[in-house]
Amino acid sequence: MKKNLLFAFTFLFFLPAIYSKNINFQVVQNNPGFDTVFAVSNLFEQALSDFFFESGHIVSNSPVFIKEDSKSDSAELKRALADTLLGGMDVLVRLEIKYDEKTANSAGALLPNSVKSVSWQNYNPKTGKIISDGSIFPEKVDASNNNEAELYKFASFVAAKVSSTLKSLK
């Protein structure tokens, strides 16, 4: 009886490991003309990390990348894929945030209305091919909700959407 109970407990303890994924992610900041990482990009990075970790996944991240042109973006993608493969991760999630140039004039501002769109691509690090992708265009919020709490809520919503596109991975 004790052996069965011990076996059942051990099985339940390790059950989440069966369904967890090793995820490396990178936030790509797409706002031409700025060379500073925006606070919004850092908040998205934190929200992704929190969401995946709380979902039982093993999480790692590459530093926020400021996209200047397609050549530098391609080189950074190759580097991130190599790091993902070297780290033994199952997938690379690249989350690109496009900023509204009219409202994203302050690198320290945590305003949801500064985000124009968010898109992501999930890559197989062994092949470098996109496994799944998606995008979201946020709704504008009124002035009373244009704050950090609302932004974190939106970033967490995006993380849930990204996670749903990873469900089909084995």
Automatic annotation (TrEMBL):
Name of the protein in its database record: Uncharacterized protein
